[in-house]
Amino acid sequence: MRQHITKALQHHSQAIQNALKKHNTLAHACIPWHLTLQWNDIIEYSFLGEFDLLRHSRANIRSADWVTLKVLQLECTKEELVRLNVKIQHLRTYIRDDEIATQQCIKILEAVDAPLATEVQKCWAFHVQCITHSRMRLNILIVKK
Question: Please, which domain of life does this record's source organism belong to (predicted)?
C-alpha cells in the first residue's frame, strides 16, 4: 500500500507540490492559521486520512468509499489476481514447452540408446501424471473477471 502511494506521489509530484504551495499560502491567510505542510511530511504519510490538506477541503474526501481500507485492500487484491493469472499462464507455457522438449529428447534417445529411452519414458509417464494434475489445478485457479 505504501509503495502504491509513494509511486503515485512520485508520478504526480509536480501537481502535488503546486497544490502544497497553494495550501501553504492559503493556510497563512486563514484566521486562525492552519498548519502548513512540507514536502517531506507528505512523503511520510502512509494513508490518505492523515492529510490535513484533504481534511479541510470542500468535500471531505476521507469519508469517500474509495478511501476506506477495505476498498483499498480490495483494489490491491484485484491487481494481485491479475498478476497471478499472468503467472499461471507463464507456468502453463513452461509446462507445455517442457513437455514438447522431453518428447523430442525421448525420440532422439530411441534412435541412439533404446534402453535409456525406455527408462526415460518410464520416468516421463509418472511426470505426465503430475503434469495432468497440475494442469487441472491451474485451470481451477484461473480467476475470471
Answer: Eukaryota
